[in-house]
Protein: Cellulose biosynthesis protein BcsQ
Amino acid sequence: MERETLFIAFSTQKGGVGKTAFTVLLSSYMHYLDGKSVAVIDCDFPQHSIMEMRKRDSELVINDPFYKRMAFNQFREISGKAYPVIGSKPADAIQDAEKLIAGSETKIDIIFFDLPGTMNSKGVVMTLREMDYIFSPVSADRLVLASTLSFASSLNENLISVGKSRIKALNLFWTMVDAREKTPLYDAYVDAIEELGLSVLKTHIPDTKRFRREMDETHRAFFRSTVFPPDRQLIKGTRVDELVTEIYQIINV
Structure:
């Protein structure tokens, strides 16, 4: 039976390319700007980075009048609340997601899963096979590329192509793109990737420090938050909006 809620993971074996950052960015963009009903299962045990971010964000909203006013105005405007962030372990993630869906008063459109960066962690493969879509951030660094291709090829050969998963599509996408790097370099990489039977999104995400900006006491514009969307002015030039559009086309939302 087809699920009504889509399960999506930004997943890769290589750390430092932004799988957790993109989970937060896309969740907040889709929920707060596009009105999608979103939830996050943070099963990157034991650090639970997104759970910790939600805790920091919530404390600022509770204790800082500036953010408290922002939250009041936002939730009045969108007639909704912050999306749920549930802490879990890879082996328990699907069960926890199903409990969340069963207990929700309204339909959840998308649940994003933040998983550990290694296939060797208990339950990771079991959880990945239950995803509807997987998106793997990759940079032009050879070590990152080799690790990501090994990860994606393994999933494709052992789960997707042999019909042992729910996965409808696995797509890589370029991130941390240096503007000085030549397009032919990426074209050559894409050709090699496609020869392995893998797909790459058209959107290239540039390398920018804006992605690191979180809520703080200075009240400056921020990019990453679990209770607010990324600042519209900061979005410009990051191509995050283009990434969201391309993902919507793939997942048929």
In short: The radius of gyration is 18 Å. The first helix runs from residue 19 to 33. The chain has one domain: 6-251.
